[in-house]
Write a structure and sequence with these properties.
The chain is of the alpha/beta class and 225 residues long. The protein has helices at 15-23, 35-41, 58-64, 80-90, 106-119, 208-214; strands at residues 4-7, 28-32, 48-51, 69-72, 95-99, 124-129, 132-144, 150-154, 161-165, 183-187, 192-207, 222-224.
Length: 225
């Protein structure tokens, strides 16, 4: 299956960011239940709508009924975003972009980011939300950037140690554990940032405008083994 966009039931993404991912080869659109309301709002036709269908409006469900494949999954053990990710993983999709995962409920927003981390071993996941772009990293990685770009790093436990190269505030074998010590609003000092991450995964949050400027070569970091 081709790289895919998942539109969740959070804040409606701009049509421009959807088109950006189209240009980068993310050609399939899957809406997580109420994400279909957002898709219609920005005139995007989903290939699939997946979920328990309790959030999509009746009007939009009828509108898409003969235009998109609709898969109803009633189970409550998984969120609609998880159902979409499991669908893609089962079909060997390599990468997906999550849009609309941040909204006006903190529990949903936190939950969607946790889901992204949980499934990142099985599929490359990026999250685009407002002005930010999030990816999940482990091991030795590097990515293209521009000097001055804001780069924030978040680890999740004391066992995950990070060493950085190309950041203004250098990190040397430190645990950047969320709630204890974060590296928020660090800055790139060169056109390449290198990270050596041992013992776990971290979130890297960058400026969406830089990602768009540099395009696909910087979307996912290169793993160096």
């Amino acid at each position: 299956m081709t790289n895919s966009i998942i539109i969740a039931n959070g804040r409606t993404p701009g049509k421009g960011i959807v088109n950006y991912f189209f240009r980068q080869g993310f050609t399939r659109v899957i809406c997580a239940d109420g994400g279909a309301n957002s898709a219609r709002r920005i005139n995007v036709l989903p290939d699939l709508i997946i979920g328990d269908l309790d959030s999509i409006s009746k009007e939009n469900l009828e509108y898409f009924s003969d235009k998109s494949e609709i898969i109803r999954m009633k189970g409550q053990d998984d969120t609609d975003v998880e159902k979409c990710l499991k669908f893609l993983i089962k079909r060997k999709c390599k990468a997906c972009a999550l849009l609309g995962v941040i909204g006006d409920r903190l529990d949903h927003s936190f939950g969607n980011l946790a889901i992204a981390k949980r499934y990142s071993d099985f599929i490359d996941i990026c999250v685009a939300a407002e002005k930010s772009f999030l990816t999940i990293h482990k091991g030795k990685t590097e990515f293209a950037t521009v000097p001055g770009e804001m780069v924030s790093l978040y680890g999740f436990d004391s066992k995950t140690k990070i060493t950085s190269e190309g950041l203004k505030y250098k990190i040397w074998n430190e645990a950047i554990q969320f709630t204890l010590k974060e590296s928020t609003s660090n800055q790139a000092t060169s056109d390449i940032v290198k990270l050596n991450i041992k013992g776990g995964k971290i979130f890297v949050i960058r400026e969406l405008k830089t990602i768009i400027k540099l395009s696909r070569k910087t979307m996912f970091a290169i793993e160096i083994n």
